[in-house]
Amino acid sequence: MTLQERFIKKIKYKNDCWLWSGVKDRNGYGCFYVKEQNGKYTHKRKYAHRISYEIYNGEFDKNMFVCHTCDTPSCVNPKHLFLGTPRDNFQDMFKKGRWKKPPVPNKGTSIILRMKNRIKELENIIIELKKEKKCLQEH
């Protein structure tokens, strides 16, 4: 059975979305295991929406995000998927009102420091987006 045949068996078609019926992560994104060239399954999880994008659109830069226009994590409809940078993904999420500032944990670890730095980066992006929005409204 081909990758595409295995993949299609896990899809439930609902309205315009193609919902993944296989294993999902805690955020609702579909997970899929792909055979390596040696015929063995990898133990590394691959996201179903990324596999869908590749099946229907061809190979892409693995550093790019595969984003959803429909904002449905389990959707694998290639017409609802687009490539973007991490910044594109955040801007899309922010513009649609889906971004929530993560809670700041206790001080003291390098993970916390990285999280604080990331929050600051995201806050700066929000400031830029608000300025762009204001500028567009003025013109």
Notable characteristics:
alpha+beta, about 140 residues, two-stranded antiparallel sheet, 6 strands, two-stranded antiparallel ribbon
Strand content: 5-15%
Count helical runs: 4
Distance between the termini: 56 Å
Which sheet architecture does the biggest sheet show?
A: 2 strands, antiparallel
Radius of gyration: 18 Å
Sheet with the most strands: spatial strand order: 1-2
Taking pLDDT < 50 over at least 5 consecutive residues as the criterion, the unreliable ranges are none
- CA-based shape: globular
Description of the structure:
With about 140 residues, the chain is α+β, with helices and mostly antiparallel strands. It is built from four helices and six strands. It has helices spanning about 5-10, 50-55, 85-95, 110-139; strands at about 10-15, 15-20, 30, 45, 65-70, 80-85. The chain has a two-stranded antiparallel sheet. A two-stranded antiparallel sheet has the order 3-4. The chain is globular, with a radius of gyration of 18 Å. The N and C termini lie far apart (about 55 Å). About 15% of the residues are buried.
In short:
With 139 residues, the chain is an alpha+beta fold. The protein is built from 4 helices and 6 strands; from the N terminus they run H-E-E-E-E-H-E-E-H-H. Helices cover 40% and strands 14% of the residues.
Topology:
Blueprint: H1 3-8, E1 11-14, E2 17-20, E3 31-32, E4 46-47, H2 48-57, E5 65-68, E6 81-84, H3 86-95, H4 110-138
Antiparallel strand pairs: 1-2, 3-4, 5-6
Helix pairs in contact: 3-4
